Amino acid sequence: MADGADSANLAGTDLQADFLDLGYELFLDRETWKGEMVAADLFDGDDGALSGFDGKCDIVLAQSVFHLFQVERQRVLARRVAKFLSRKGAMVMGRQGGFTAAREFSLGDKRLFWHDEGSWRRLWEETGREVKDENGEEMRFEVQTWMVKDESWFWKGCNVPDWQEGRVMYFTVKRL
Questions:
Q1: 151 class by beta-carbon count within 10 Å (0-12 exposed, 13-18 middle, 19+ buried)
Q2: What residues make up the domain containing 131?
Q3: Mean predicted confidence (pLDDT) in 148-167
Q4: pLDDT over threshold 70, residue 157
Q5: Residue 156, pLDDT score
Q6: Contacts by residues 144-149 (CB-CB < 8 Å, ≥ 24 positions apart)
Q7: Alpha carbons 81 and 124: distance in angstroms, whole number
Q8: Structural domains counted in the chain
Q9: What is the pLDDT, as a whole number, of residue 152?
Q10: Does residue 140 form part of some domain?
Q11: Closest Cα to residue 172, out of 75, 96, 79?
């Protein structure tokens, strides 16, 4: 790893094994990568390939993922990711597209939901009520967000409606 992190302490998943293979080609690390990479469907609760991550992750990086889906799919994703968290203090972090006022919209033939700070916080409050910790108690989360107007990131040519109201939402979701 570039900054000295031991890849044996890292894991990742993608829907298709081909995408994992492309990552090895891009980073030229097929022979040196020691972490676990799993092709699996995060939306399939019966996909046993992901159960090995349950309760084992201190940090989950969800970079540019949630905003690709409608809010109901995001709820499923949040519940799945919450199960990965190992302990109190473990966190989900990342960035995604957001709006100053949350909304669903169409992009081509796809429906997407982009959060504002309040709707993102509510998503994780709901997730905590639905996902139980190792003691059978509801999970609780501390959610922090930073909304940044960054037109260089903002999907030039993608026809995001009302892109002027768009923001890059950076976030941390820490298990309490």
A1: exposed
A2: 57-175
A3: 71
A4: no
A5: 57
A6: 144/171, 144/172, 144/174, 145/98, 145/117, 145/120, 145/121, 145/169, 145/170, 145/171, 146/170, 146/171, 147/98, 147/100, 147/116, 147/117
A7: 11
A8: 1
A9: 67
A10: yes
A11: 96
Biggest CA–CA distance in the chain, Å, is 48
- Alpha carbon distance 134, 13 (integer Å): 23
Q: Is residue 15 part of a domain?
A: no
Which one-letter amino acid corresponds to residue 73? Answer: R
**SS3 annotation, 141-170:** EEEEEEEECCCCCCCCCCCCCCHHHEEEEE
pLDDT at 163: 72
- Which residue is associated with the tokens 């509510």? 122
Segment 104-145, tens digit of pLDDT = 998 889 999 999 999 999 999 999 999 999 999 999 999 999
Quick check: 74 pLDDT over 80?
yes
Q: Quick check: is 31 in a domain?
A: no
